[in-house]
Amino acid sequence: MLTNRRTLLAGAGALAAGRAFAQGTGAPIRIGLLHDLSGPFAGAGSVPLSVGAEIAIELFNERGGVDGRMVQAVAADSQSRAEVAINEAERLVSQERVDVIVGVYSSAHAVPLAQRMQAQGKILWINSAIASAVLKGKHFTHVFRPTVHSDQYGEGSIEFLAEHCERATRIAPTQFKLGIIYEDGPYGVGVATALEENARRVGMPVALKEGYSATAPDLSTLVTKLRRARPDAVLQVGYNPDITLFLRQAKAGGLRTRMLIGHGAGYSQIDRLTETFGAEIDHFCNVDPAATQMLDPSRLTPPARELQQTLLTRYHARTQSNDPPTHASMGFNNTWVFLEHVLKPAVREGGGSIDAMRRAALGVDIPVGGTIQGYGVKFNPPEHEMAGQNGRSVAVVMQFENARSKVVWPTPIAGGPPVMPLPAGSPFALR
Amino acid sequence: MDPFLLEAIVNGILLGGVFALPVLGLNLVFGVVDVVWLCYAELVMVGMYCVWFLYTQAGWPLIAAFAACLPVVAGLGLLLHQLVVRPLLSSPPITQVLATGGVLFILQGGAMLIFGTDFRSLGVEMPPMEVGEIFVSGTKLIAFVAALVGAGLLWTFLKFTYVGTAIRAIARDREVMPLMGVDPRRIYLVASAIGGTLAGLAACLLVVQLDVHPFIGLSFGPITFMICVMGGLGNMLGGFLAAFLMGVIISTGGFWWNTEMSYVVAFACFIVVMFARPRGLFAR
User: Signal sequence: where (chain A) (predicted)?
Assistant: First the structure.
């Protein structure tokens, strides 16, 4: 796949200016799309996130928009830099006159953006940035996040290990040592904190917990320290290229362990990881919301099933990807929830005002199985500690095998038990 | 001695080898031309893309891709000098820095337009060396040896050839050497080409260790500048030694404290050096 910033912005521009005007009746409804189309985050999931959102808007317009009024996307590139994200959001709001910004990949961007959008009384619809710190204790009224939050990553990872470690490795959870390494932004810190808290809750010892800069040129000392700490499982929270740098140096540095678990972002780009490491990443696990193709279609409602197939067909047509990354599902799913369940009723019943959108968002009530990622949607009210967070979002643990991912936790929806410990053929397996 | 500490020190020395070549190139250009190439790390990025493209897309043997990379980046260094630096030689330093900074963004943007934002991997690796409990990356070791050989060749060239002597003389006294019959414009060109070649060599060593993407320069560019200043801007031996010193500081700092703190320690050392020896640790 060769996707560059020009292509993406041009694609979004075509979305904005093309069929929408030709077919629409009435003024188009403008929304801002803010993603990292360049810089390190672009290759770590932000581009699939934006492509998913574009497909959702394209489909929504093809189905008639809101009673003939088309949605016009105004795309912006936050360039993997927080200050650019803030400036672009400001431009979208003040110059492009949008009332809603959809997207946002990085939690480091989402934290200041959420404050600003709330202060300006505009809607921020976060499709990806998962750090709990974005919403926790803030009581925002104009910021919504349909996807999972970092506390759920910590819970998923630790519950999964606690459930399987004794059966698979004959080590009790209270003896099963963890090595937690994380990029030092809000995303990494948020997930790592949740991992540590959940480990403490189940009595699982943390042998090493250490942060690093995602742009660090060398992580070999971290590998050395992990070898000294001898964790039974290494839990990494990272973007890219820090993940590939770590894995490459871990292999060269002789790091051996029983399980390696990633937590979204770079670990959800399975095509990229496979291109670099081939079968060496087989049986690694990853925690994230489920990419739609991992879910049994029969567990989804018929409309969600139809959307699932549409996304998979169109995403493949655009990118030739064999296993669309989770971010593609997140971009499509969460944008679709906004368009179909918030924008449409807000325009019909409240003229599309910001207040009408806010009311519509708080009224969304999608049951489990009603979205292409399996989870339902019901946003926490402003008095909730995590106001604006989807209270029905679910993170799953998936395991890589032959360049594909399969769900291995929660057990009731898993395709089977995980392969654990890492088999002897893995260069990362204990010998 | 704790074998893991020993491993961290060895890793630090090898990391110094990674920093050493770009530091040498940057110092050579600054010492001779008196202009900081702010886009130096982006020249390395272009070289990395060159190797990646020739090896993985054009199907060239790796050695041939490496060999082609050197003249390509050397040519880029020449172009940079002729088109951007030469017209600004008599301009204030801030103008020169901003101009080469502009080239940085042009190269980043150009790479993004041509190759996209994906991370590109060469998929080449060497088996690690295992000595007792210590693991040493084979790839890093080869890069380290190559850096030493490259530095040795540069030293031989500067020490034992007429052009090398002229380069050193220009670096010592830019005003007097033209009176001795040395054409500074020619020397500037040669220095820029050598600076580019060293960036190309650094690219060959880095592309087997790191994924290449348009913003890879952010990973090692800032630390390269810091090492140059720490060793004495324009002082090649000083920069070379400072690269290894900084590598060991980062590695052992990470071992004793943590990886985040290692860079804090490195920057703290840098600030202390600047207070104690403002012209650099090894300035004469």
Answer: 1-22
On whether both A401 and A275 belong to a single domain, the answer is yes
For residues A58 and A170, membership in a common domain is answered with no
Contacts of B271 (CB under 8 A, 6+ apart): none
Mean pLDDT along residues B29-38: 86
More confident residue, A357 or B90: A357
Question: Residue written as tokens 């998929």?
Answer: B123
Length of chain A: 431
Enumerate the residues of chain B whose CB falls inside 8 A of the CB of residue A210.
258-260
Q: Amino acid letter at B191? A: A
Q: Residue A21: give its domain's CATH number.
A: 3.40.50.2300
Strand, helix or coil for residue A418:
coil
CA separation (Å) from B195 to A321, A404, B76, B150, B189?
Answer: 41, 45, 10, 12, 10
Q: What is the pLDDT of residues B140-155, one digit of tens each?
A: 888 889 889 988 999 8
The dihedral sign for the CA sequence A206, A207, A212, A218: negative
Which chain B positions have a beta carbon within 8 Å of A4's beta carbon?
112-113, 115-117
Q: Is the pLDDT of residue B235 over 70?
A: yes
Kindly state whether residue A423 falls inside one of the protein's structural domains.
Answer: no
B24 by Cβ neighbours in 10 Å (0-12 / 13-18 / 19+) ranks as buried
Q: Are residues A224 and A88 in the same domain?
A: no
- Could you tell me the CA-to-CA distances from A336 to A13, A295, A362, B145, B157 in Å, in that order? 19, 18, 16, 55, 64
Whether residue B4 and residue A225 make contact (CB cut-off 8 A), yes or no, is yes
Distance CA B20, CA B241 (A): 8
Range(s) of the domain holding residue B164: 3-115+141-276
User: Residue B135 domain-assigned?
Assistant: no
pLDDT-based confidence at residue A7 (cuts at 50, 70, 90): low
Task: For residue B247, give the chain A residue with the closest CA.
Answer: A218
Please report whether residue A429 resides in a domain. Answer: no
Which pLDDT belongs to residue A23?
A: 45
Average pLDDT of the segment spanning A116-128:
96
Which residues 79-118 of chain B have a CB within 8 Å of chain A? 112-113, 115-118
Helix/strand/coil for A66:
strand
In a domain, A389, yes or no: no
Tokens of B103: 């080239």
The confidence score (pLDDT) of residue A324 equals 87
Nearest Cα to A190, choosing from A131, A250, A138? A131
Q: Which residues contact B168 (CB under 8 A, 6 or more apart)?
A: B158
pLDDT tens per residue across span A286-310: 999 989 998 888 889 999 999 999 9
- Are A109 and A82 in contact, with CB atoms under 8 Å apart? yes
| Residues B15 and B247: beta-carbon distance below 8 Å | yes
Rounded to the nearest 10 degrees, how much is the dihedral formed by the CA atoms of B108, B112, B115, B117?
Answer: 110
Cα–Cα distance for residue pair A356/A146, rounded to 1 Å? 18
Residue A303 domain-assigned (yes or no): yes
- Domain of residue B264, CATH code: 1.10.3470
Closest CA to A400 of A317, A218, A242, A276: A276
Residue B107 has pLDDT above 70, yes or no: yes
Residues 6+ apart with CB under 8 A from A116: A86, A89, A90
